[in-house]
Design brief:
The complex is a heterodimer of chains A (about 375) and B (about 190). Chain A has about 375 residues and is an alpha+beta fold. In chain A, about 55% of the residues lie in helices and about 5% in strands. Chain A has helices at about 5-10, 20-30, 30-50, 60-105, 110-115, 140-145, 170, 185-210, 220-235, 240-250, 260-275, 295-305, 325-335, 350-360; strands spanning about 315-320, 335-340, 345, 365-370, 375-380. In chain A, helix 2 (about 20-30) crosses helix 3 (about 30-50) and helix 4 (about 60-105) crosses helix 10 (about 240-250). In chain B, about 75% of the residues lie in helices and about 0% in strands. Chain B is built from 9 helices and no strands. The chains are: A alpha+beta (about 375), B mainly alpha (about 190).
Chain lengths: ~375, ~190
């Protein structure tokens, strides 16, 4: 072995056989420079082996267990929230939708309520409500939520809560960006608000003639709807669900108070878009012309005012397979009310939600709903 | 109770059993981490991450294979992640940090060697520790597992997920690199 070969073999020390290692040692015994090189190499390896060990911190196991406990708690909460969201997302969406309608209408409620001022001392509109959705008298709700609107607080800064019903056509018309409102859709919204204001005034005159303030304010009906949705959700869920509803609405109100103007309506609308649930494509909604809820409620108001112009829809049909009827029944009772035998009644909005829920749960059904307007009555048929 | 019994209990969610495993392996894990990361605090953090991952994934551990290899593989992976993050944030370990770590350790373990010899050992160890710090991440890993921890090729191969041949050639290249870095301090050796 020469020095060159020695250097080469030393560079591949790990790959050497025992005999090759002996040859290296033998050469080193004869060659001083190669011996130094071998010593240097061996000392490095030995030093590496002898490097002092470090110890883990004294409370390592304790801290580790504390951290694991934390992670487990987090996982439990997350699982619960996800389960709630999955089970009750339609209720959340409906509740949020009602809240945003309340907010929109409240912001324009000055126009509705002011004409009443002469007739009512407190400026508060009392409410009579047909108990078609099993909801208690909305007076209390109204009193709690809506302060009398006077000239001072009309058009004032009021918080707007957001959310949206699952109306696909409606949301497509709404701008995505608050800073660039779509003037077309805003004009549409504005004109419809005005329209409902006009209708409201007309209805007001009518109820005055009838001798009782039976005008139901849009806000009233919306507030009671909110209460109803909250009740429905609370009945069917653990307490976290209802907490989540308020949390969600709180989260959604995380925008500064807006003045009631075009910008705020656009802001509300864009938030409505953002809170749109993802599975819209799965829903089985009938697309219909955009209609501000105000009109629907005014139609209901006409209902109340002595049965004038009460809508009589043809009776629809809902066909559910016997295999699915048990699961379907829970959903049917959630969204509608049994009026007689196999007849159920629900507002068009809730019928849509009910069918969407069927789709989500994989429940097989077929239905015939003559018109998605106002109150719908349908016959439940089990096949 | 054998290690397999302890592992079985861990799988059933027995925290006591898990803590026993931690007691048994925490020292080795922290030293592998320290070798790979050259920083004590990072090594402690990495060790905690390792055992949390063990706790979460013990269900997927197949009892027929070696627990220590599985554990060290997790350690190597977590250290790699930390090193990658480090590269992104260009957070380098200072030379002084290495010296301080070494000094503390040697003071605690102060025993019989003469002051001169002790100083030399300390200097040599310090120099090697520093040189290891200057190695590339992949060279540092094999030097840590082979020369510091004394693992076999098979185990290193499984821990790093490399073929044995690659492990061998990488050890050679790592040592050559170490020699080159330390050639400036030949007088210590």
């Amino acid at each position: 072995m020469n020095c060159e070969l020695f250097a080469e073999k030393l560079d591949n020390y790990e790959s050497l056989s025992s005999e090759e290692k002996i040859e290296l040692a033998e050469h080193a015994a004869k060659c001083e420079s190669c011996a130094k090189e071998l010593d240097f190499f061996m000392n490095i390896m030995e030093t590496a082996k002898s490097l002092p060990k470090i110890e883990p911190p004294k409370n390592f196991i304790n801290d580790l267990n504390v951290r694991i406990d934390k992670e487990e708690r987090k996982q439990r909460i997350l699982r619960k929230i996800l389960h709630n969201i999955k089970s009750y997302k339609y209720q959340y969406v409906a509740a949020a939708a009602c809240l945003v309608l309340v907010a929109v209408v409240t912001s324009n409620s000055g126009d509705f309520i002011n004409p009443q001022k002469d007739n009512n001392d407190s400026g508060v509109i009392s409410e009579q409500r047909v108990d078609d959705n099993g909801v208690s008298d909305g007076n209390n709700v109204y009193d709690n939520v809506i302060a009398p609107v006077t000239d001072e607080n009309d058009n004032s800064q009021i918080p707007i809560e957001t959310g949206i019903e699952n109306k696909t056509e409606k949301t497509e018309a709404i701008p995505q960006n608050t800073s660039k409102p779509d003037t077309n859709s805003m004009t549409k919204i504005q004109s419809e608000v005005t329209q409902s204001t006009v209708s409201q005034k007309q209805t007001t005159k009518h109820s005055d003639t009838a001798g009782e303030v039976s005008e139901k304010s849009v806000t009233n009906s919306e507030e009671t709807k909110v209460e109803e949705m909250s009740n429905a959700a609370a009945q069917n869920s653990e307490s976290e669900a209802s907490e989540n509803i308020s949390e969600q609405s709180e989260a959604l109100t995380d925008i500064d108070t807006y003045s009631v103007d075009e910008t705020s309506i656009a802001a509300v609308d864009s938030r409505m878009v953002m809170s749109e649930p993802v599975e819209n494509e799965e829903s089985d909604f009938e697309t219909e012309d955009y209609s501000i809820v105000g009109e629907g409620e005014i139609a209901n108001a006409r209902h109340i005012s002595g049965g004038n112009g009460k809508k009589q829809n043809a009776i629809g049909k809902l066909n559910v397979s016997a295999d699915d009827i048990d699961r379907a029944m829970d959903i049917i009772l959630l969204y509608s009310k049994n009026v007689n035998g196999d007849l159920y009644s629900a507002d068009a909005t809730f019928v849509s939600m009910m069918l969407a829920n069927f789709n989500y749960e994989g429940i097989n059904y077929s239905n015939y709903i003559p018109t998605y307007e106002g109150q719908i009555t349908f016959e439940l048929v089990v096949s | 109770m054998t290690e397999n019994d302890i592992i079985k209990k861990c799988k059933d969610g027995n925290r006591e059993a898990f803590n026993r495993l931690v007691e048994k392996y925490q020292s080795q894990v922290v030293n592998i981490a320290y070798g790979m990361l050259s920083d004590k605090e990072d090594a402690y953090d990495a060790t905690q991450e390792v055992f949390i991952r063990v706790y979460k994934n013990i269900g997927s551990f197949k009892e027929k294979s070696s627990f220590s290899t599985w554990l060290y593989r997790i350690t190597a992976n977590i250290c790699s992640d930390i090193l990658r993050k480090r590269q992104k944030s260009t957070n380098t370990i200072s030379i002084n940090q290495v010296y301080d770590d070494e000094n503390k350790e040697i003071d605690i373990k102060d025993e019989s060697p003469m002051p001169e010899e002790m100083a030399e050992i300390t200097e040599r160890q310090r120099a090697v520790r520093q040189a290891i710090c200057e190695l590339s991440d992949e060279y540092r890993a094999v030097i840590t597992l082979c020369d510091i921890e004394g693992m076999s090729y098979d185990e290193i191969s499984q821990v790093l997920g490399l073929p044995s041949g690659t492990v061998k050639s990488r050890i050679n290249r790592a040592r050559n690199s170490l020699r080159k870095i330390l050639s400036k301090k030949r007088e210590l050796f």
